[in-house]
Specification:
Keywords: Signal. The protein is an all-alpha fold. It has one domain. The chain is built from 2 helices and no strands. It has helices at residues 5-20, 29-109. The relative contact order is 0.03. The mean pLDDT is 90.
């Protein structure tokens, strides 16, 4: 009596799976020590990374605040400049009008 092919494949798979899966192996004392050292180093480096990330965030915040302060100073400077220039432009325009008036009168005399 022979089994159908799909049953044979299923049986073969059931037999091979336990053979191919790796069993957890026992670590040697040196490997356990190295694993412990690596875990400690990982924890230390993660803490250092966390601290450095915090320092970077604080520096970014500080520079953003400085940039904002400078933007406000520039805006105030531009407003003061514009106020100062208004009077100068008005004086220039009045003088230009006076010059045009004199030129027009001179041309009428020629």
């Amino acid at each position: 009596m022979s089994l159908p092919l799909h049953l044979l494949l299923l049986l073969l798979r059931l037999l091979l799976v336990p053979l191919t899966t790796a069993l957890p192996r026992e670590l040697t004392p040196a490997q356990r020590l190295r694993k412990k050292e690596l875990c400690e180093e990982l924890a230390m480096r993660q803490e250092a990374e966390k601290l450095k990330r915090k320092i970077l965030h604080e520096k970014e915040d500080l520079w953003a605040a400085r940039e904002e302060w400078h933007r406000e100073q520039i805006k105030a400077l531009e407003e003061a400049k514009e106020e100062d220039m208004v009077a100068a432009r008005k004086d220039r325009d009045e003088e230009s009008a006076a010059v045009q008036k004199v030129v027009k009168e001179l041309k009428s005399l020629v």
